[in-house]
Design goal:
The protein is α/β, with parallel strands linked by helices. Helices cover 31% and strands 22% of the residues. Strands 1, 2, 3, 4, 5 and 6 form a 6-stranded mixed beta sheet that branches.
Length: 189
């Protein structure tokens, strides 16, 4: 009986690991004339969630700067755009009790985009995003047990860069493309 339960748990964990989304960079989305200019990340005084592992602001800055450069630096449009991102808050999951208390890591950032040539801000108010590590074979029992704080930061930075790329693609008019059509809401008369 115990062996059957253990085998079932191992099988489920294996399936979850196999189905888990990997940190793979998909093909670039359409961003028109976008080309990364300045990539400025500020992590001067991020709020730390009380149960979080400690992270040095410079480490958060370096990790997110690298992830943004890797993700957005691959666009080769004709016009430079400058991205400013502040790290507002973070939580790096500490080790927990597997399957009972397994905290998840999170990162809160605010992004602003400038047209370099015009020297103007494209979004009047900073766009704030909250990203999580996601669930995969490493985080099912808690990433605090399976990842170092640096690995957690790298996954969070990857997810933040991906979310910012999505935000840019949601605003194609900034990059010389036609705006996305507004969703049609059907009336219920």
């Amino acid at each position: 009986m115990i062996i059957a339960r253990l085998s079932a748990l191992i099988l489920i964990a294996g399936l979850l690991t196999a189905c888990a989304k990997q940190n793979v960079v998909e093909a670039p989305v359409e961003l028109g004339d976008f080309k990364m200019g300045l990539n400025i990340v500020v992590a001067d005084n991020p709020q730390k969630v009380p149960i979080s592992r400690e992270a040095k602001p410079q480490d958060l800055d370096d990790s997110l700067t690298k992830a943004l450069q890797e993700r957005l630096g691959r666009y080769d449009g004709d016009k430079f755009y400058n991205l400013g991102v502040s790290v507002d808050a973070y939580a790096l999951a500490p080790p927990g009790i597997p399957l009972v208390l397994s905290p998840k890591s999170a990162l809160v950032v605010t992004a602003t985009l400038w047209d370099d040539a015009a020297g103007t801000k494209l979004n009047e108010k900073g766009a704030q995003f909250t990203v999580f590590e996601g669930i995969d074979g490493d985080t099912l029992i808690g990433s605090g047990l399976t990842r170092t704080p640096e690995q957690q930061m790298d996954v969070l930075s990857f997810n933040a860069a991906k979310r910012i790329e999505q935000w840019l693609s949601d605003n194609p008019e900034w990059f010389g493309l036609p705006p996305k059509p507004k969703p049609v809401v059907e009336s219920t008369k």
